């Protein structure tokens, strides 16, 4: 136990190169090239040791955490003994991985046992490269076989945690996919409702505008019919006056009083005729104004429909952009 504590202290000092008095995750990840663990695995080891979750390890937390994980202590102490003695990186002129090569060529049973161990732990689904773990396993088996069981126990814990993390990740991915599918379905539903609402409002607007135009047209037609009837009445009145005047002229000569009366009547009729002609002219002018107003209303109707259609198109385009942004 004292040896383990000493190795843990030595490992803490190697991680804390600046002498800060605590170790962060970045300090441990700097040693990634010399360790048989990935960055994610180092992060999981750090999170396991960081009991209070403040993002840093004090010497007490560091040493206590490694004491709780006895197999982890043995693994990292062996690793950093190798680091300190420059055994991990080959020296100039030396062959790479001398212990591993010698062990592999000397004993096929060790290869079989290690393969069985990896199969039991399910390491092939977690590790892409088992060479570093295998090298350390062979080294412990050869130099310190009494630590091999603790190392295997440590591997069981590590791979179990990795598999649990992988299962949690898969569950989170499934939940995320379900949420994304539900969100897409909701967006599609909102889009369809918006399309129906736009279509309904457009139809209502066109219906109201058409009804208003028809109402104006009917009103103008009624006015025009009324003016035509008044004109017809004036024409009939003029014909009657002309007929009366003709009868008076073709009749017998009457007294001067009657002639005077006839003259007065004739003048009055002429004034009525002039007034009727004037009214007829005014009616024709009003009819022309009504026709021009009808034409202008028709053009305004077409322009209003065009503006409304263009406005609806811009609103639709804006809504489509918002929907794309929401997606």
Alpha-carbon Rg, integer: 53 Å
Q: What CATH first level of the domain at 1-82 would be assigned?
A: Mainly Alpha
Q: Which class best fits the helix and strand makeup?
A: mainly alpha
Main sheet record: 2 strands, antiparallel
Strand line-up of the largest beta sheet: 1-2
Can you tell me the CATH superfamily of the domain at 1-82? EF-hand
CATH topology of the domain at 1-82: Recoverin, domain 1
The fraction of residues in strands falls at: under 5%
Structure description:
- By secondary structure, the chain is mainly α.
- Among the domains are: about 1-80, EF-hand (Recoverin, domain 1, Orthogonal Bundle), CATH 1.10.238.10; about 125-190.
- Helix content is about 80%, strand content about 0%.
- It is built from 10 helices and 2 strands.
- Strands 1-2 form a two-stranded antiparallel sheet.
- Helix 1 (about 1-15) packs across helix 5 (about 70-85).
- It is rod-shaped and about 165 Å long.
- Mean pLDDT is about 75; it is low at about 70-105.
């Amino acid at each position: 136990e004292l040896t383990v504590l000493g190795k843990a202290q030595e490992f803490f000092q190697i991680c804390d190169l600046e002498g800060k008095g605590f170790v962060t995750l970045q300090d441990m990840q700097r040693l990634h090239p010399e360790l048989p663990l990935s960055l994610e695995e180092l992060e999981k080891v750090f999170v396991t040791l960081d009991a209070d979750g403040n993002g840093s390890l004090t010497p007490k937390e560091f040493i206590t955490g490694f004491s709780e994980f006895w197999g982890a202590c043995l693994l990292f102490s062996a690793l950093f003994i190798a680091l300190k003695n420059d055994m991990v990186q080959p020296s100039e002129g030396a062959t790479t991985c001398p212990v591993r090569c010698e062990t592999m060529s000397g004993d096929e049973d060790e290869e079989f046992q290690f393969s069985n161990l990896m199969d039991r732990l399910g390491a092939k689904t977690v590790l892409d490269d088992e060479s570093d773990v295998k090298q350390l396993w062979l080294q412990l088996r050869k130099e310190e076989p009494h630590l091999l069981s603790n190392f295997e126990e440590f591997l069981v814990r590590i791979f179990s945690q990795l598999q649990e993390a992988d299962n949690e990740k898969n569950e989170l991915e499934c939940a995320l996919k379900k949420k994304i599918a539900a969100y897409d379905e909701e967006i599609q539903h909102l889009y369809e409702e918006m399309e129906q609402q736009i279509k309904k409002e457009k139809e209502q607007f066109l219906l109201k505008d058409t009804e208003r135009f028809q109402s104006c047209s009917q009103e103008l037609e009624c006015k025009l019919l009324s003016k035509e009837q008044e004109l017809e009445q004036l024409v009939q009145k003029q014909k009657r006056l002309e007929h009366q005047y003709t009868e008076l002229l073709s009749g017998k000569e009457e007294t001067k009083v009657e002639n005077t009366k006839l003259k007065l009547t004739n003048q009055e009729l002429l004034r009525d005729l002039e007034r009727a002609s004037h009214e007829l002219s005014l009616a024709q002018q009003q009819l022309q104004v009504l026709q021009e107003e009808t034409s202008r209303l028709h053009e305004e109707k077409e322009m209003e429909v065009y503006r409304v259609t263009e406005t609806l198109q811009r609103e639709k385009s804006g809504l489509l952009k918002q929907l794309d942004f929401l997606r």
